[in-house]
Design a protein that fits this description.
heterodimer, A: 402 residues, alpha/beta, eight-stranded mixed β-sheet, 11 helices, B: 205 residues, 8 helices, 33% helix
Chain lengths: 402, 205
């Protein structure tokens, strides 16, 4: 995995990068921290411990002297620590650049933003593609099963290392929203405000079903080799590239909406050269999915896809508690929950119910549903409502005693 | 709208200062149908109340969030079941009672989640309303009842006397009341001269 690939964000096909001139670009460099150095072996929920865990992260803005202006951003399934600004060679900026920067919703003139890659991923933090020091080979399936709680723990350890005790806020969309909500339960005294967008506290059967199709596509690819990838015959990509591409295609369908797809592709067909295969790609939507699938295999690790989708499928914020509101009983007081009307992967009612549980727990939840035709992906696209809501919420935290 | 924005006092509805005078400083307030959050912001800034709102219009929700007010985007007919009993010191329902599908259900719920409720409603027995019906033979339209019959959100018509009778029959105590015609307080024959009515109510023990 090259650094460059990291910057192809998981999904914002509509976003033009052309509005940026070269001179406007502000570059950032990824950082990495071995959180086990000061904290000791990292314990996973499943029981095993890793003697060494790296957490890759980036920061934007400046930490103030009393360390009270830090906001942690959590990424979604296939993104990484590169949330904003540019890396050398980027075709587009980090995945939430529309939200993070000077004068933007997460205003880097005011706030110190930290974005870290979750363990189990493949963008610099330790994951199944990392080398297992005991064998000298990639962990593969020897990597411990990971949970959303583990992700949040790793990031809390990073905060320890950075000397940041209490965050101004945590925020994330989709899997990032799950981390934000888990952070509220795991570390209730370490964040003043919680922002979760297009997310849930536990997957429903449909969400699990789509992830299962993705996992099966990978595991039934002969190149998967039970996690120890087999070399393709002269193919530049080794391992279950076909399965991973299909997993990505299925995923991508769920990130869009019927109306969004209709507007973007309709039934248009692309020009193609005569092919002996009558079923060769013809519709534009097919061509788009094919491209998304193929490019994904160059930037993402198939085992990471298995681990992370399993983590979000097994996630249940109320686990270990008698109810969701009991889980939230000690949580920070202020939550902002945002949903999108056309998001059928994480339908609005999921966070609406979370808002209710938060209120039953005696906390305050601002809940808003934004009209958009772009489905689950909406939260990654430039959206003024989302920017206003986040900005307003962050402002209101300032006026609130902790 | 800037987070702290509030219109100057003389441009605020007369009801605001009345409501303020009826509740304790630092009260926990729930404003149902909170609009752009003006009343909540007013109580927060002038009376150190802590509040949250429920609002159906996305545009108005957005204005509330922008000024940093906790708000739920949704319908008040469905949403109150989320709150624990007696969660709020005061529940506010401004000019909304006549629009909800099930007024009895809403009143029961606001008196469950709030120790007290303050309601305001347009008085359908206001003399101008009576006069329009009597002399013009037309469905009445006033500043507080500005809609034609076919576009009105109002589902129920009630007068001051109707409301008082309802409270009596349903074991609800009217702790305080005030009546307004425009921004003028009315004390004489409110059922005839009040354009709008305000009532602070609570469940009789």
């Amino acid at each position: 995995m090259s650094q460059k690939d990291q910057n192809t964000i998981q999904s914002d096909p509509g976003q033009e990068s052309g509005s940026y001139t070269e001179e406007d670009r502000v570059y950032v460099e990824g950082q990495c921290n071995v959180v086990t150095e000061s904290n000791g072996p990292f314990p996973f929920d499943e029981g095993r411990k890793l003697p060494e865990l790296k957490v890759a992260y980036e920061t934007y803005g400046k930490l103030n002297s009393d360390k009270s202006n830090a906001i942690m951003i959590f990424h979604a399934l296939t993104a990484g620590a590169h949330a904003a600004l540019w890396h050398k060679g980027d075709k587009r900026p980090g995945w939430w650049d529309s939200m993070i920067g000077p004068g933007k919703a997460f205003d880097t003139d005011r706030f110190f933003i930290i974005a870290a890659n979750v363990p189990g991923s493949c963008y610099g933090s330790t994951g199944p593609a990392s080398i297992n020091p005991e064998t000298g080979k990639p962990y593969g399936l020897q990597f411990p099963i990971i949970t959303v709680r583990d992700m949040v723990r790793a990031q809390a350890w990073l905060l320890d290392d950075l000397g940041i005790d209490v965050l101004y806020a945590v925020a994330g969309g989709s899997m990032g929203g799950m981390q934000a909500l888990q952070f509220a339960v795991s570390y209730p005294h370490r964040a003043r405000g919680i922002i979760a967008i297009a997310s849930t506290t536990r997957h429903n059967a449909q969400q699990i079903a789509f992830n299962e199709v993705g996992r099966q596509a990978i595991m039934r690819d002969p190149g998967w080799g039970h996690g120890d990838y087999l070399n393709g015959s002269g193919d530049e990509v080794e391992g279950p590239a076909h399965g991973l591409a299909i997993a990505r295609m299925v995923g991508h369908i769920t990130y869009l909406s019927e109306e969004g797809m209709h507007q973007k592709f309709g039934r248009r067909q692309k020009d193609r050269e005569a092919s002996p295969n009558p079923f060769d790609i013809d519709f534009e939507v097919a061509s788009y999915l094919d491209y998304q699938g193929r490019s994904f295999t160059k930037r993402f690790d198939a085992n990471s896809y298995l681990y992370l989708t399993k983590a979000i499928d097994t996630f249940d914020l109320s686990e270990g508690f008698s109810s969701l509101e009991n889980a939230l009983a000690e949580a920070p007081r202020r939550f902002l929950l945002i949903t999108y009307s056309s998001d059928w992967l994480y339908p609005p009612q999921q966070l609406r119910e979370v808002a209710r549980a938060i209120r039953r727990a005696g906390r305050s939840a601002t809940y808003c549903e934004i009209d958009s035709i772009y489905g689950h992906d909406s939260f990654l696209l430039k959206n003024e409502d989302q920017e206003d809501f986040v900005r307003g919420f962050l402002n209101s935290l300032e006026r609130e005693e902790v | 709208m800037s987070p702290q924005y509030l219109p100057p006092d003389d441009q605020l509805p007369a009801a605001y200062s009345i409501i303020r005078s009826w509740i304790e400083p630092k009260s926990q307030v729930l404003d149902l149908g909170c609009g752009n959050g003006n009343l909540l912001a007013y109580l927060q800034q002038q009376h150190q109340c802590r509040g949250e709102g429920v609002e159906l219009s996305r545009e108005l929700v957005s204005q509330c969030v922008n000024r940093g007010l906790p708000v739920h985007h949704g319908d008040i007919d469905e949403g109150l079941g989320d709150y624990p009993d007696q969660r709020f010191d005061v529940v506010l329902l401004s000019h909304t009672l006549q629009e909800v599908a099930n007024p009895t259900g809403v009143i029961d719920e606001i008196l469950r989640v709030g120790k007290m409720a303050i309601l305001s409603y347009p008085n359908f027995a206001y003399w101008r309303v009576r006069a329009q019906l009597l002399f013009l033979g037309r469905a009445p339209r006033t500043p507080h009842l500005p809609f034609s019959w076919f576009e009105s959100p109002n589902r129920h018509v009630l007068s001051v006397s109707d409301f008082e009778e309802y409270c009596e029959e349903n074991k609800i105590e009217i702790v305080r009341s005030a009546y307004l015609s425009g921004s003028q307080k009315i004390s004489f024959w409110p059922n005839l001269f009040a354009e709008t009515a305000l009532a602070a109510i609570r469940r009789k023990p």
